Amino acid sequence: MKPNEPIPPIRIAAIAHILLFVRDAEASARWYGDRLGMKITARSPDGPYRGAIFLSFGQSDHDLALYSAPPDKAGRELGEITLEWDADGQEVAARLALWRRDGVAVEEIRKGAILTGLRLHDPDGRPISLAIGSCGAM
Q: Closest Cα partner for 75 from 117, 121, 116, 37?
C-alpha cells in the first residue's frame, strides 16, 4: 500500500462473538435461550472470566458471553445488537406468534410493506434486532 492511498475496508465474514454486561447473567442466559434458541456452552466459575456464561446458536463454541455487572454498569452501554436471521416467512410468522403469545413486546421493522426485521428487548432493556435474511422474508 502506498502512502496517502486510502485504506480499504476489512472484509468481515461474521461477528465472532458479543460480550454483554448484564444485571443477572442467569436470567439473561434463560432469555437468550427462550427467545432466540441459544444454548449454554460453558460457564466460568473462576479465573479471568469468573461468572461468565457462554451461549451459542450451534455453529461455534460461543456467540455470546454474558457477565453479571453492577446495576449502574449493566444494560444500555452497548447500543442495539443486530443479528442476521436466516429465516423464511413461515418461520418468522411462527416465531412472532410464539413471542406474542408469551407476552413478548416485538416491533416489526418494515421497508414499505416488506417486513425486514423484528426488534425485541433483552432483560436489561437492550434492543435486539433480527434482520431477516436478505431483508425480506414476508
A: 121
Say what the pTM is.
0.66
CB 110, CB 116: distance < 8 Å: yes
Task: Report, as an integer, the average pLDDT of 11-19.
Answer: 72
| Beta-strand pair 127-132/81-85 | parallel
Cβ-based neighbours of 131, under 8 Å, separated by 6 or more: 82, 83, 84, 85, 109, 116, 117
Class of domain 15-72: alpha beta
**Cell digits of residue 2:** 502506498
Select from 3.40.50.300, 3.40.50.80, 3.10.180.10, 3.60.10.10 the CATH code of 79-138: 3.10.180.10
Given this model, what pLDDT does residue 137 score? 40
The domain spans of the chain are 15-72, 79-138
CA–CA distance from 129 to each of 22, 51, 93, 111 (Å)? 18, 26, 16, 15
